[in-house]
Design brief:
single chain; about 170 residues; alpha/beta; 5-stranded mixed sheet; two-stranded parallel sheet; 3 helices; about 20% strand; elongated
Length: about 170
């Protein structure tokens, strides 16, 4: 069973996208469709065809966001989480070779590997939940088990950019 969790920041980003699509972008594209339709023959009107397709994509995304925002549960930071890895935590891991990585556990709607965000449903996140600094964690990966040591846990972003898998 997949978790329907999201950080407040992630929920606000989806809500902002929904409002933009519905209140700004969709009306712009609707106007373009109307203008293109007014030019006559729609069957050979590339502008009409393109914008009509774009309008369908926008409507699909709007439907998805409305439904998704209703089913998501916002998880806010709680002081009881301090010192352990839970949903929303940023953390630094180190392997035996001394390679360090930083990640944050988020919901699937927030996944962004460039930012070092991993989903709560990932094997790494599942292995780390409830762990604390200096704990050793074995994560099952497709290439076999990987061992990591927890160096830091925070509930605010790291200042530098060390994220993701070591090079």
């Amino acid at each position: 069973m997949k978790a329907h969790l999201i950080t407040r920041q992630g929920w606000q980003a989806l809500d902002k996208e929904l409002k933009y699509l519905w209140k700004e972008y969709r009306p712009q594209i609707t106007l373009k469709v109307q203008e293109a339709a007014a030019q006559g023959d729609r069957s050979e009107n590339a502008d009409y065809t393109y914008n009509k397709r774009l309008l369908r994509q926008i409507d699909g995304r709007v439907r998805y966001l409305v439904k998704r925002l209703e089913e998501l549960k916002i998880v806010d930071y709680s002081p009881q989480q301090e010192g352990k890895i839970y949903f929303g935590a940023w953390f630094e891991l180190e392997n035996e070779a001394g390679e360090r990585v930083r990640y944050r556990i988020v919901g699937k709607d927030e996944l962004d590997t460039k930012l070092g965000y991993i989903t709560i449903d990932s094997p790494m996140a599942r292995a780390l939940i409830g762990k604390q600094v200096d704990d050793e964690v074995v994560v099952q990966t497709p290439s076999g088990p990987k061992e990591w040591y927890i160096n830091q846990i925070r509930y605010s972003p790291f200042e530098d950019n060390l994220t993701g898998v070591p090079e």
